[in-house]
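Standup notes
- DV: blocked on the single-chain target, sequence here:
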Amino acid sequence: MTVRSIRRSLIATGLVAAAATLAFTPSASASVPLRAAAQADDSALTALTLGSTGKLDANGAAVFVPVTVTCSKATEFDVTVKVAQAVGQTMRAGTTVRRVTCAATTQEVRIAVIPVERPFAQGVAFGVVSANSCDPGPTCNAFIDEHRFDLAR
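- DV (later): unblocked, structure below
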């Protein structure tokens, strides 16, 4: 390996690590009290939960993440899913934003997340799912769930 190729590799790794750090920094608007406020305000979206196991597909080129949404009435909103995984000395990360249509019930949606640089692998990862429920009027409520979960075949 030449000095130039080592330098490029280090720069690329640093950029991926910096992007993952920024992507997984929780925002000030996403907190547990907002969930209670959403229920009290009769928000359409009442709960949002990240599943415990993602399903690897296409040799790690994608992972399907289960997300459970509960709505008090029919609504549509954007859900953001972020996945990060450390494998050895490398970081794998991806983010997807998807429009979800929710009936007045609890339902599970599977959202595909594609890694930016390297494929996801079987094992432990960290995930964040978030959404904003904005009803007519000036009120928006933020929902977030974040925890480690497993990636399996």
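- Follow-up: Residues 14-40 have pLDDT under 50 and may be disordered.
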